[in-house]
Amino acid sequence: MTTLELRNVNKHFGGLHVSRNISMGIEQGELTAIIGPNGAGKTTLFNQITGYIAPDNGNIFFDGLDITGKDPEILVKMGIVRAFQVASLFIDETVYDNLYLAALAYHGKNGNFFTNRRVYKDVAEHCHFILEKLGLSGKEKLKAFELSHGDQKVLDIAIALTMKPKLLLLDEPTAGMSPDERVKMTHMIRNIHEEFKLTTVFVEHDMDMVFGIADIIRVLVHGELIAEGNAEEIQKNPAVIDAYLGHEVL
Amino acid sequence: MTFEIFISQFFGGLSVAMLLFLVASGLTLIFGVAKVFNFAHGSFYMLGAYFSYQAISMFENFWIGAVAAALGAGLVGMLLEICFIRRIAGREEEGAFQILLTYAFILILDDAVKYIWGPAYKTISKPDSLAGSLDFGQVTIPTFNLFIIVLGLVIVVAAWYVLSRTKTGKIIQAASTDTQMVGMLGVNVSLVMSLVFGVATAMGGLAGAMAAPLRTVAPGSGVEVIIDSLIVVVIGGLGNFWGALFAALLIGEVNAFGILWMPQWASLLSFAVMIVVLIFKPKGLFSREKGRKKI
Amino acid sequence: MKTKLTEMAPWLAYFVIFVSMIFAGSDHSIHVASQIIILGLFAIAFNVLFGTTGLLSFGQAIFYGLGAYITGMMAKSFGADFFLWALLIAPVAALALSAVLGVLSLRLSEVYFTMLTLAFAQLAWGICVKWSSFTGGDDGIQAIPKPDILNMGGRNYYIFALVIVSICIYLLWRLDRSPFGSVLKGIRQNPIRISFIGLNVFRHKLFAYMISSSFTAIAGGLYAGIDKSIHPDMLVWTMSGSIILMTILGGMRSFFGPLIGVAVFILLEDVIGRSTEYWSFVIGIIMITVVLLFPKGIVGVSRHFAGLFAKKGGQFDNP
Question: Which residues in chain B have Cβ-Cβ distances shorter than 8 Å to A69?
């Protein structure tokens, strides 16, 4: 079953054509990597899928429903959740409170203005479950700004997982990380994907990771989807070789 | 309404619009380049009027007064930028603190003016050379109003030319977008910011001096001016030069004709215009933003 | 247990100070204390917007004035009994007005929002001054009647105001610790993330604005009873400015900070303000000092010193 489908999605920024007629279908439970040189329009594509910006034309379907142009908060409720290239956190709050706020939102408690926010047992359990799953236990009392860069990225993903997504989008999960942290992150993403049977799409520059764990790799160049397939197919695809290495190598 | 009244109100409105534009464009200039919202911008208008009053009472020459107004307001503006505004740059919630800091300037400048020149109203008369009026058949237009319109136009064109067609303008624009990089290229960015601040506040001071013969000089007049220029800037779009010009013309004319239509409420008409614009174009009439911005 | 105690300590201090004023105060100090609690409610309500949600409104005086004029005009036209009813109607009216103004102004970002709130408040002030047949114009409204029981000296009215203010502050305190309060703090720190955990930023801001405004109207209504007179100055932009100053003077990151700021400011005004005609100048200097040197306010500075002290103590404890 197709979880996410894009049909002829186009987006311009001024004179720049950042999404060119992109069509793709992402199957349920698939772990997809989107790769491409800088400026290929990967983050812009994420922004359109998650409702941060609307496509100029074309349609986006999620579980068969047309979600084109819907606002992020509605898409999150439907199950499309993202993590950011630069971790997007509540920087003055503790790790626990970052997750707690997300869990409050998930459980629909955000409108309660008279109850002490600490009383919700289910919300607290939800947070502890996520803390443990992502190896953040023991760090819950640290403020978000006190975390290492790698842990901030983990917390960003933890916030996303707190929303119990059906479709998880990760924008460069290992950006700026040390090699050790990269390996950990790679394992973490694979574990999350397998354990929750989660349809996952990630943008990444670390090719070891991409070719190591992705079921399907999709290549975006100058806003155009030039290739899709498994690791082997992508490695042999002349268009991809051309885009990455240029003509002279062939 | 006779044709004569129509024409004379129209030109009256036009001269008010030009003065308003001088203040409002200073406000947009500072906001566009230095990313500072100068809440006290109207107070430089007031300062200009007082400096010009002082110079005229010493030298008995309107033009020396105008120069004193522009120079004095510009210098005070630069001084405040260097001593205070610069110090809160880069702070968390900088925007709010800028507004509060410049709000403090309004209070201090109002009281300082009261202390130095007293609470009573001051008047400045038009320069003799422009005191008359020009006759066009049945219509007469005060020369001074025409002069203000021309002066306003000259400054508009000059400012637009400097900002968009000269090297200085390119440096100023670059300094606001790529501060660090421009600094690396050997431009003294903080000096550029201070100068921009100085020029913008000098424009406000000049407007104050020019408006003084049409209105009165009084402590607290800066507040009315800042509110009017805010309305202009909101209608035109913050940081939008031509938008501010159009909005100033709109507000100037609405006030000029509103005073005939409903004298008591004319001063509130600008608010009504602003609210109507906001309902239909929340980002101002000339906002360049296309598509939907979500947050 | 420890957290409970630190949470309760400010409340304890609040009641000790303001209840003791009932018995200890002279007429003058009762009058000052009434001003402090009423403006304190105004400032704490304002800080729901500023310190919590990160929205700087420069026009909250509009709701303060609205509350005062509704109360004053109702009591004046329909009689003393309506004074109490007016205190209920004022927040409802503020809710409606803030919904309209909020929809217009909250769509815009930071500076625009601030300036629009200022423009709306100035518009209201202009109407208030010019429509003298309805509002009394520059003179405002005098000799506002109150129920007899509140009329015997300033003390009874102070007790009445203290009860209402305390209930309001308690409600706002609950809000501060509630899930809704957490969302508002989240909006201040990272509005984009808030929409990506499935919450509508605009709607939460609007509710915060409406809640803050209706409590401000209650404060305005209570103020109408202190001197039995109200005037357009309650809506003028420097009123909003003073509330902002008091809030940051006390500490905008602390729930009770604004109240402390109000108390310090009113006491200063009582001492200095009466002896100089250049009180605005003094306010300006205080504002610059606070903004440049103590942006976290009195509470922030004392927390800093308390922190230093605690660290030293810790060293002694663990040799």
Answer: 292
